[in-house]
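User: What would this chain look like folded?
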Amino acid sequence: MAGAEDGESRTAAEWCRRRHLAVAINMGMYREDRRTNSGHAHAPGYVNNARWIGPYKSALGIGPLKTDAPPAMMADLDQEGDRARLSMYGTVVQNLRLIRAPGRGVWAKQERRWSEAAVALDKQGRVLFVFSRYPHAMKELIDVLLSLPLGITAAMHVEGGPEASLSIHAGGVDLDLNGSYESGFNENDMEQRQWPIPNVLGSRRH
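Assistant: Here's the prediction, encoded as structure tokens.
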């Protein structure tokens, strides 16, 4: 998170280089100060946003603090006990929910569409980074994700439009992807470069 370092936003590709990441995706939408996550966010030794935002019903917990905790969990914050279980994790990030456990889309049909970056959890507890440059309406994208043999049980929105980013630099793959289209903001497919973003979720190279 930029606020825990020098305060500077960077592209996902630059975050990969700076922090030696194999993959990086947006951590979430951010506020006008270009540092603060829209929903709650904290990591060991640093609180990015102490507030919990009522309409944001998903939270990702990673970095377990207890040996018997799964490596990651995605909480449904309107599900009894889920928020308490997040205390087992050192890093917690709250965002808008796309899919609630055990695999049910929560968005109604709408006309607005955008390029999408999302984070999901599958039946085996693996974290999935999801990216679509093609601008879907969210219900359409959710239906696509649930129809694929990925076993997705929960997912949250982490960014849309030209800010949506995914960088992969591992296993012989070198990709720096960015979104473009967003209804009411950037209604074209012309953006070819990643935008600087303040916070990312990533996995280190091993």
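The first strand starts at residue 21 and ends at 26. If you want, I can go into more detail on any region.
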